[in-house]
Design goal:
This protein is an alpha/beta fold and about 270 residues long. Helices cover about 35% and strands about 30% of the residues. Strands 3-2-4-5-1-10-11-14-15 form a nine-stranded mixed β-sheet, with helices on both faces. It has a four-stranded mixed β-sheet with strand order 8-9-12-13. Strand 2 (about 55), helix 3 (about 65-80) and strand 3 form a beta-alpha-beta unit.
C-alpha cells in the first residue's frame, strides 16, 4: 500500500511540474541563420505538438509568402502540427479581424526575419499590440528569428546608426513589441560583430541587460526569468557595474542556463 501511495505522489508531482512549465510565459528568441532541430522541436513542443497550432507572421520579409513557406516546411519535417499563415501586411479591416481570431486560437506565434521596422509598422495598431501581449501573458509561446527577435525587447534596435564607435546615442532605436522590458536584445551577434551597438546602448540604459544572440542559436526564456541556450553557437550577456564606464559580460554555450532576474548562471 505504501508503495502505491508513493508512486501516486511521484505521479502527482510530475504532473504538477509539467503543468507549471506550460503555465509559464514562453519566449524563444533566435539570432538568425539556421533554425536548428532542437530550437524548432522546443517551439513545437511548447505549442502543443500535434494537438496545437502555430501562427506564422511573415511581415518583416520583403517576400512574405516565401518566408511563411520556409518556416512551414522546416516545421513540417519535424511535426504534423498545424501551421497557419497570418494575413500579409499591410492589413485591411477584414484581414485584421481574421488575424485577431487566429491569435485567439494559436498555441504558438512565430515572427519571421527581415526588417523589424515592418513588423512594428503593423503593430502601431494599438488593438493588435495589446492582443499580442494578452496572448503572451496567457501562455501562448512566442518565437522569432532575426528581425522577429529584435522586436521582443521594449527598446528595439532598428539596424540604423554608426556602429564603428561605442556610443548609444548613435544607435537608432524604436519602440518594440516589448514582451521583455528589462533587456535590449540583438541578433546575428557574433557572426556580424555587433558588440559596439549593444554595449553603447547598455551604457546608455545601465539598468538593462544586453543580450546578444548569435546565428543558429536561440535563447529560450521561461516566465521572463529563466533562460537556456539552444542551437549551435553562443549567447553573450552584458551588464554594467557600479563603476563608471565599466561593464562585465559572460558567454553562454548550448545547454547553459541563466537567471535574468538574479543576473547569474544557474
Amino acid at each position: 500500500m505504501k508503495n502505491i501511495q508513493k508512486s501516486f505522489q511521484i505521479f502527482l508531482l510530475t504532473l504538477i511540474c509539467s503543468n507549471l512549465l506550460f503555465a509559464q510565459k514562453q519566449l524563444i528568441m533566435i539570432g538568425g541563420g539556421k533554425r536548428t532541430p532542437d530550437i524548432l522541436t522546443k517551439f513545437i513542443e511548447l505549442s502543443g505538438n500535434e494537438k496545437g497550432n502555430i501562427l506564422v507572421i511573415p511581415w518583416a520579409s520583403g517576400e512574405q509568402e516565401a518566408a511563411y513557406s520556409n518556416i512551414k516546411n522546416e516545421i513540417g519535417v519535424l511535426s504534423k502540427i498545424v501551421v497557419e499563415k497570418a494575413p500579409l501586411a499591410p492589413l485591411t479591416t477584414e484581414s485584421k479581424a481574421l488575424l485577431l481570431n487566429q491569435l485567439k486560437a494559436a498555441k504558438g506565434v512565430f515572427f519571421c526575419g527581415g526588417d523589424q521596422n515592418r513588423i512594428m509598422d503593423v503593430l502601431k495598431d494599438e488593438e493588435l499590440f495589446k492582443a499580442m501581449h494578452e496572448r503572451y501573458n496567457n501562455q501562448v509561446v512566442f518565437a522569432g528569428t532575426s528581425a522577429g527577435t529584435a522586436i521582443m525587447s521594449e527598446i528595439m534596435i532598428t539596424g540604423e546608426g554608426d556602429f564603428k564607435v561605442i556610443d548609444g546615442t548613435k544607435v537608432e532605436t524604436k519602440k518594440g513589441l516589448g514582451l521583455m522590458n528589462e533587456i535590449i536584445v540583438d541578433q546575428h551577434f557574433i557572426k556580424r560583430q555587433r558588440q559596439n551597438r549593444l554595449i553603447g546602448l547598455i551604457f546608455q540604459n545601465p539598468t538593462l541587460l544586453g543580450i546578444g544572440i548569435d546565428e543558429n542559436t536561440a535563447l529560450w526564456v521561461q516566465d521572463n526569468r529563466n533562460a537556456e541556450v539552444l542551437g549551435e553557437s553562443q549567447v553573450m550577456i552584458f551588464e554594467t557595474t557600479k563603476q563608471a564606464k565599466e561593464m562585465k559580460f559572460i558567454i553562454l554555450e548550448k545547454g547553459e542556463k541563466y537567471n535574468l532576474k538574479k543576473r547569474k548562471k544557474r
